[in-house]
Amino acid sequence: MLKGIDPLLGPDLLSILRAMGHGDEIAIVDANFPAATLASRLCRCDGIGAERLLGAILTVLPLDDFVPSAAFRMAVIGSPDDVPPVARAFAGLLRDAGYDGPVEALERGQFYERASRAFAVVATGERQLYGNLILTKGVVRTPDP
Fold first, then answer.
1. Catalytic site includes residue 22
2. Does residue 6 have an active-site annotation?
3. Which pLDDT score, from 0 to 100, does residue 7 have?
4. How many domains does the chain have?
5. Is 70 a domain residue?
């Protein structure tokens, strides 16, 4: 345990988040996602919901503010304009963390392809369909002297 660090952020996930550089992406995916097949680096967080884990990750991960969008969700198959409840929850958590950009919807194949190129894939125990999100890491700015 560490002071000020959410206990859901275990050593493997903290190591991944710390090792990521500006512009690297991390995919937070649901229990149905083929994470082991697509991930170059896989971090398992079974039993933890994607919303709860996203909240923990956002306490330490800066999001990229040099790009039009730093957050991507999977679009609903056959109904791409629908925003499922889990995606609305993701958007709220991102907003609460200070992110004011869009959460872009990617078609399933596009999402899979982008996730396969991510720095890491974090497999959660999320059971809500479409509980998948990709985030682009930003920078931590040094305060002005």
1. yes
2. no
3. 95
4. 1
5. yes
